Amino acid sequence: MPFPYVLTLVRYSEIGTKGDNRSFFEELLARNIMAKLNEFGIEAKIDIEQTRLIIESEVDISPILSTVFGISSFSVAERVNTNPEKIEEKISSIRIKGTFRVSVNRRYKEFPYNSQDYSSKLGEIILNNNPEAKVDLHHYDVNIGVDIGRDYTYIYTKSQEGPGGIPVRTQGRGVVLISGGIDSPVAAYMMLKRGMEISLIHYFQSSRLLEKVFRNKELLEKFSPYPIEIKIMDHRKLLGPTVLKLRERGEEKWTCIFCKRIMYEEAQKYAEEIGAKAIVTGENLGQVASQTLDNLNTIEEKIKIPVFRPLIGFDKIEIERMSEKIGAFDIFLSIPSSCDCYFLPPRPRTRSKIEDLKIIENDMWSEN
């Protein structure tokens, strides 16, 4: 790495609980970070060091690290050898006005001081060199972090939160039914956070919705170390023959249920093509007619792989807040919205039984 460089200390929490699998999660997190840095053309070196990732990069990479799942927090830091004399020499050079505290994390348990005693010792050094400074453990202007590893110690004054979760690709791949609304991009974000790599499937209804879908795809790629694939299918062509038969039989109220069943079946076919193991939707219990408990049960009756609904227990306000946090709400508002479904019946069925659906289904296609 050419000098000068920026050194960043990366922490993770959940990965640290993975026991014998921890090295797998650590290595994948390092690869994901490097993939994002390569996307921006940033040269860097990453080392794994006692439950930490140490990144040497040519520029400050904080904005990128704030989008990589698996990171709990990170700090731009300075490094010294793990030697009390070297650490104290560096602490002596710090200049502070106002209140401060020292937080020591002793990862290297053979270090001759415990964390609390060494925090006090370093605090005294800072006070001796900064007459205008005061210690305040609760209402401080600056927190001086000292992270003590076996070979190196990292000293920093600021920490930033990461997005948490676990690294993408640790949990396989899923197919997300994506729309131009706020629910499906939030659901996709949540599954990325749980380590799932995602591909998208969209059922085309209008150009304005398609524009939102591609903007949602771009948004989600901000949080994915890898490009996200998308499959576009024609909603009218896919559903049209079924709707005509329902109308012929006076069963148009079943349209939304048959529509969702077809969407799920096509998502399952796509999953089989790409080796995905689950379907992900933005469905939320009771939000619309097709999302009642009875109808959800009927809709997924033919599906052989898991269907994940991460928003199932959220209310609309909670989903909107999450969408605002990740940027999906602005996309939703960017283009005037209305229901673009050509087949929406005036009174969709809110309760269904699989037995009743089978009777209608057999009647519809018996002539063939």
Brief characterization of the structure:
The chain is α/β, with parallel strands linked by helices. It has 12 helices and 15 strands.
Notes on the protein architecture:
There is one protein chain. With 368 residues, the chain is an alpha/beta fold. It folds into 2 domains: 6-161, 2-Layer Sandwich (VC0802-like); 173-365, HUPs (Rossmann fold, 3-Layer(aba) Sandwich), CATH 3.40.50.620. The chain has 12 helices and 15 strands. The chain has helices at 22-39, 62-65, 84-92, 115-129, 183-193, 207-221, 235-248, 255-274, 293-299, 316-326, 328-334, 354-365, and strands spanning 6-11, 44-48, 52-57, 73-76, 78-81, 98-106, 133-135, 142-148, 152-156, 160-161, 173-177, 197-204, 230-234, 278-280, 307-308. The strands form 3 sheets. A 5-stranded antiparallel β-sheet has the order 2-3-1-4-10, covered by helices on one side. A 5-stranded mixed β-sheet has the order 5-9-8-6-7. It has a 5-stranded parallel β-sheet with strand order 13-12-11-14-15, with helices on both faces. Helix 7 packs antiparallel against helix 8 (255-274).
Q: Count of DSSP helices?
A: 12
Mean pLDDT: 91
CATH architecture of the largest domain: 3-Layer(aba) Sandwich
In which range does the helix fraction lie? 25-40%
- Please state the overall shape, judged from the principal axes of the Cα atoms: elongated
Strand content: 15-25%
In CATH, what is the homologous superfamily of the largest domain? Answer: HUPs
How many domains? The number is 2
Radius of gyration, whole Å: 27 Å
Fold blueprint:
Layout: E1 6-11, H1 22-39, E2 44-48, E3 52-57, H2 62-65, E4 73-76, E5 78-81, H3 84-92, E6 98-106, H4 115-129, E7 133-135, E8 142-148, E9 152-156, E10 160-161, E11 173-177, H5 183-193, E12 197-204, H6 207-221, E13 230-234, H7 235-248, H8 255-274, E14 278-280, H9 293-299, E15 307-308, H10 316-326, H11 328-334, H12 354-365
Parallel strand pairs: 6-7, 6-8, 11-12, 11-14, 12-13, 14-15
Antiparallel strand pairs: 1-3, 1-4, 2-3, 4-10, 5-9, 8-9
Helix pairs in contact: 5-10, 6-11, 7-8
